[in-house]
Amino acid sequence: MQELKKEEMYKIESIYAGWQESLLWSCMQGHMGRAWVDDIENPTAAEIWLGDFSYFAGDEQSAGAKELVRNIPEDYQSECALMVPQNEAWAKVMEQVYPGNSTRLTRYAMKKHSVHFEPEKLREYISRLPEGYTIRQIDEELYDKAVSERYSRDFCSQFRDCEDYLKRGLGFMVLYGDEPVGGASSYSIFTDGIEIELVTKEEHRRKGVALAAAARLILECLDRNLLPCWDAANLQSKRIAERLGFEFDQEYPTYAVRDYR
Asked: Residue 37: which of 76, 10, 18, 19 has the closest Cα?
């Protein structure tokens, strides 16, 4: 097993061909993320890791397949790793490698390109925020607040620092008075778009905070000619995405792996 350099990402393009996932694009385009292969000269199986997610593709019967599935970066600190198999054959490899500490979940992929947003409807969602709530683009001050709280850390966690986020990232936070209570931001970026991260503090949910923040971020993406992407972790997230204008693509399995060291 060996890690690819940014300039070597072309070697795994055929392995991930047709997989419509923005985090894969982020890595293969060299923006963020890391990749490993079973053979550096002639790769047949690969792992792409970005944030909390890893994606496995290629020949699951490769001699290095299980080694790839066991590979979790040493600097990864989260209590749970999310592993996505290309197909059911890879899913079986994951179940073999992590027989007692993995849980199979269902996630919901939304279509990436055939999306038609209605700006008027998005602006209406923003206007429905209750009195006392405002939306602000994430600046240096809000960046510091976002990374200081666990619930909002992933708004910016894939960027090196504040300077990097302000240069390459994009996001908005909803404030109640002066307190950030939710928002929508770029979990990751690729050449022509972003993957949306959406979070609201529990005590401020069911008030339209998430819907308004996501609508504001999508409008900004449209103004900048960026493609906003959405991957739903649950049915509630899927419903929000569909209200905003995203179209459902397909369900897919993900393995939540704990106690992986």
From this structure: 10
pLDDT above 70 (res 261): yes
Query: pLDDT by residue (tens digit) across 22-36?
Result: 999 999 999 999 999
Decide: 136 and 175 in contact? Cβ < 8 Å. Answer: yes
Predicted pLDDT of residue 77 = 87
Taking 70 as the threshold, does the pLDDT of residue 114 lie above it? Answer: no
Compute the distance between CA of residue 40 and CA of residue 4 in angstroms, rounded to an integer: 7
Dihedral through CA 229, CA 90, CA 69, CA 232, nearest 10?
20
Q: Which amino acid is at 257?
A: V
CB atoms within 10 A of CB 178: 7
Give the CB-side neighbour count of residue 255, counting CA atoms within 13 A.
28
CA distance 213 to 146: 14
Strand spans (E) along 65-145: 80-85, 102-110, 133-137
- pLDDT, tens digit (0-9, with 9 covering 90-100), for 33-46: 999 999 999 999 99
What count of other Cβ atoms lies within 10 Å of the Cβ of residue 247? 12
* Cα 152–Cα 155–Cα 160 angle in degrees, nearest 5: 120
What one-character DSSP code corresponds to residue 153?
G
Please identify which residue in the block is written with the tokens 């399995």: 253
Consecutive H or E run containing 171 = strand 171-176
What is the spatial distance between Cα 102 and Cα 97, in angstroms, rounded to a whole number? 9
Question: What pTM was computed for the model?
Answer: 0.95
